[in-house]
Amino acid sequence: MSTHRPGARRFRLSDLPNSVFAFLLVFVIASLWVPRFFSPGNLSTLLLQSSILITLSIAMSLTIIAGGIDLSMGGVLSMCGVIIALCMRNGMFTLAAIGVGLGAGALFGLLNGIFVTRLRVPPFIATFGSMGIAQSLANTLSGKRTIYWESGSHSTLMELLKGDVLRLELGSESSMVFYIP
User: Fold this and answer.
1) I need a surface site. Which of 26, 30, 98, 177 has the fewest CB within 10 A?
2) CB-hemisphere CA count at 13 Å for 66?
C-alpha cells in the first residue's frame, strides 16, 4: 500500500535549483583535486570563512522573501566593522564599541526605512545610495587600511571570543582538528 497522499507532490531532484547542482559539482571537483579537502581542519576553515556570508545571506533572503531588497548590507557591514575597530583601538570597552557600531548600522537601517516608506524612494535606489555612503565612510575612517589595536584589559570579551565553542581533536596534526570558534 502506498503512503503517498492524494494531491501531494513528490519531491524530485529536478525540483532543486541549478545553484545546488553547481555547488555540489564544485564541491566534488574540489574534493578530488585538493588533497585533504575533507580534513576536519579544512572544513572548520571553510565554515569560519563563510560564516559572515551565510549570516548576511539569511538576512537578505528574508528581505527578498518579504518582497524587498537591500543593497546596502555590505557597505553597512564594512562601516560597522571599521567603527567598532576604531573605538576599540581608542580604548573603548568592547561591548560599548560593539554597541556604537551596531547603533551606526541601525541608524542606516532607520534612514533606509524612512526613505523607502515615508519619502517613497524605491528600495533599490535608497539602499544603493546608502551602500555607497556607508562604504565611503568606512574607507574614509580607515584610510583604506586595516585597523589594528593592542589587546588590553578593555577587551576581555575579545579574549573570551578567541576560545572555541566546539573542538574535536581527531588526530595529532592541526589538519585533524575540527573546531568552531
Assistant:
1) 26
2) 10
Longest Cα–Cα distance of the chain, Å, equals: 71
Q: Residue 157: CA atoms inside 13 Å, Cβ hemisphere, count?
A: 9
The C-alpha atoms of residue 108 and residue 126 are separated, in whole angstroms, by 11
Residue 69 C-alpha cell reads as 531588497
37: buried, middle or exposed (CB in 10 Å: 19+, 13-18, 0-12)?
Answer: middle
65 grid coordinates: 522573501
Please check whether residue 116 is in contact with residue 55, taking contact to mean a CB–CB distance below 8 angstroms.
Answer: no
- Taking only the tens of pLDDT, the chain with its 181 residues reads 556 666 677 878 778 888 889 989 998 898 899 888 888 888 888 888 888 889 999 999 999 999 899 999 999 999 999 999 999 999 888 889 999 999 999 999 999 999 999 999 999 999 999 999 999 999 999 999 998 877 665 556 666 667 777 788 888 887 788 888 7
State the residue for C-alpha cell 554597541.
99
In the chain, what are the helix, strand and coil shares in percent, each to the nearest 5?
65, 5, 30
The candidate with the shortest Cα–Cα distance to 152, out of 95, 97, 92, is 92
CA dihedral 47, 69, 81, 54 (to 10 degrees): -10
